[in-house]
C-alpha cells in the first residue's frame, strides 16, 4: 500500500514552511516513529515521523525547499515489507542541473549563519552531500565578505548602506506587528516599589542553597495571580464573540539573535515561583537553540515583556495577537519615593499595560494593574 506524505501543519496558523532536511532516502526501510524529515517554521525546526513501517519510495520535494504549502505531497512510502532498493547518488552533472533552491540547498544552520552575516546563498558553493551548503561554508565565506566587501552605494547624495536579507523569523514578526497595531491599544502605567520583593528573594536564596529565582519569575507569578483575581481581563477578542479563559497561560518574551519568541508558562496561576523559575529556564534555553515545539510558544492568554536588564526605565509594549493584553516592565532602580509625609529613596519599577480596547476597558485594565502592583509590593501574598 502506498502512503502519501504531506507537508504537515505544525501549528494552527502555519500555512507554509521550509523542508529543511530528509533523514531518509528513496529505498530506505523505516519503522513507525522514525524521524524521516525536518521542517523549519518561522520559530523552530520540527521533526516529521513515519506513521507506519515500510520502505521510502519517491521523494518529491527536495531538502532545502522553502515556502512549501501545508498539504503539499512531499513524498510517497510503501507500507509493509516491500523490499528495499539501492538508489545511486546523483552525479555531479545531475546536481549542477538542478534549479537554485533545490541543490545546492543550504542547511538550516547555514541559512541562519548567512542571515546573520548578510550573505547571499544562491551563488555559494557547498561542501556538503550533493553540493549542499553547510554552516562551515558560510563561516568561511563570512570573514572575507565582512572585511573586504564594499558597501552598496545608494543614489548620489544619499547615505551608503548594506543590504541584509529578511529572515523568516523577522518576516513573521513584521506580519504579526502589523496585525497587532490594527487592534486599538490603550496604555496604563504604574510605579511599583520593589524593596519588599527583593528582600524576600534574598531570604529565599539564603535559606535554599542553589535556588535560582529571578525577578522575572516573581513577575510571571504576580501577573498570573492578578489574572486569576481579575478574571474579566483573562479574555480574548474573537470577532463575533469574546473568549473567557478558565486557565492562565503566560507568554514570556525571550530575545533571540534573529528576533523574539514567547514561550508559554501554562497554568501559571497554579505554579509556585520555584516551579516557574525551573520551567522558564528550560524553555528559554531551548528557545535560543530553536528547539521549541509550536504548542510551547503559540497561544497564551496574556504576555509579559521585561527590558529591565537593558536599563530601560519603562516600555510601551505592542500586543501579542490575538491576546488582549501585555505588561511591559523596565528596570528596578533607586528613585525618590513619598512614604506617608516623608521623602525616601526606594527601589522602583515602572509597569505598563497595553490592552486591546475591543475587549478590555480602562477600568478593567486599571484593576488588573493595581492587583499586579499590590502583589509585587506585598510579595508574601504570592506565597499563600
TrEMBL record:
CDD domains xref list: lipoyl_domain
Residues annotated as domain Lipoyl-binding: 2-78
Residues in Peripheral subunit-binding (PSBD) domain copies: 105-142
Matches recorded under Pfam families: 2-oxoacid_dh, Biotin_lipoyl, E3_binding
Keyword NADP appears in the UniProt entry: no
SUPFAM superfamilies: CoA-dependent acyltransferases, Peripheral subunit-binding domain of 2-oxo acid dehydrogenase complex, Single hybrid motif
InterPro entries: 2-oxoA_DH_lipoyl-BS, 2-oxoacid_DH_actylTfrase, Biotin_lipoyl, CAT-like_dom_sf, E2/Pdx1, E3-bd_dom_sf, PSBD, Single_hybrid_motif
The entry's keywords: Acyltransferase, Lipoyl, Transferase
MF GO annotations: acyltransferase activity
Major enzyme class: transferase
Entry keyword Acyltransferase: yes
E.C. numbers: 2.3.1.-
Domain of life: Bacteria
Cofactor(s) the record lists: (R)-lipoate
Ranges annotated as spanning the membrane: none
Family, per entry: Belongs to the 2-oxoacid dehydrogenase family.
Listed name of the protein: Dihydrolipoamide acetyltransferase component of pyruvate dehydrogenase complex
Organism field: Parachitinimonas caeni
Amino acid at each position: 500500500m502506498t502512503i502519501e506524505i504531506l507537508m504537515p501543519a505544525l501549528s494552527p496558523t502555519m500555512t507554509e514552511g521550509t523542508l529543511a532536511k530528509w533523514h531518509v532516502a528513496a529505498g530506505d526501510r523505516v519503522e513507525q516513529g522514525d524521524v524521516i524529515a525536518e521542517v523549519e517554521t518561522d520559530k523552530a525546526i520540527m521533526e516529521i515521523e513515519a506513521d507506519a513501517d515500510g520502505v521510502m519510495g519517491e521523494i518529491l520535494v527536495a531538502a532545502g525547499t522553502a515556502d512549501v504549502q501545508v498539504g503539499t505531497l512531499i513524498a510517497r512510502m510503501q507500507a509493509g515489507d516491500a523490499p528495499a532498493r539501492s538508489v545511486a547518488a546523483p552525479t555531479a552533472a545531475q546536481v549542477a542541473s538542478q534549479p537554485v533552491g533545490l541543490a545546492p540547498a543550504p542547511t538550516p544552520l547555514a541559512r541562519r549563519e548567512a542571515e546573520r552575516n548578510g550573505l547571499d546563498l544562491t551563488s555559494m558553493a557547498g561542501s556538503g552531500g550533493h553540493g549542499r551548503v553547510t554552516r562551515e561554508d558560510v563561516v568561511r565565506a563570512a570573514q572575507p565578505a565582512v572585511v573586504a566587501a564594499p558597501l552598496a552605494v545608494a543614489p548620489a547624495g544619499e547615505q551608503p548602506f548594506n543590504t541584509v536579507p529578511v529572515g523568516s523569523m523577522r518576516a513573521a514578526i513584521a506580519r504579526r506587528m502589523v496585525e497587532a497595531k490594527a487592534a486599538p491599544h490603550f496604555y496604563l502605567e504604574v510605579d511599583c516599589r520593589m524593596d519588599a520583593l527583593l528582600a524576600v528573594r534574598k531570604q529565599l536564596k539564603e535559606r535554599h542553597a542553589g535556588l535560582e529565582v529571578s525577578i522575572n519569575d516573581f513577575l510571571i507569578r504576580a501577573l498570573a495571580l492578578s489574572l486569576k483575581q481579575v478574571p474579566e481581563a483573562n479574555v480574548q477578542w474573537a470577532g463575533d464573540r469574546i473568549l473567557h479563559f478558565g486557565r492562565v497561560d503566560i507568554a514570556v518574551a525571550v530575545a533571540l539573535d534573529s528576533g523574539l519568541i514567547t514561550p508559554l508558562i501554562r497554568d501559571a496561576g497554579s505554579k509556585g515561583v520555584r516551579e516557574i523559575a525551573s520551567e522558564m529556564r528550560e524553555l528559554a534555553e531551548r528557545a535560543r537553540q530553536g528547539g521549541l515545539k509550536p504548542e510551547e510558544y503559540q497561544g497564551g492568554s496574556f504576555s509579559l515583556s521585561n527590558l529591565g536588564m537593558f536599563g530601560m526605565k519603562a516600555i510601551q509594549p505592542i500586543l501579542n495577537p490575538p491576546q488582549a493584553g501585555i505588561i511591559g516592565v523596565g528596570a528596578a532602580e533607586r528613585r525618590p519615593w513619598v512614604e506617608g509625609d516623608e521623602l525616601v529613596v526606594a527601589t522602583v519599577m515602572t509597569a505598563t499595560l497595553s490592552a486591546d480596547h475591543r475587549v478590555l476597558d480602562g477600568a478593567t485594565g486599571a484593576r488588573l494593574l493595581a492587583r499586579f502592583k499590590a502583589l509585587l509590593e506585598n510579595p508574601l501574598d504570592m506565597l499563600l
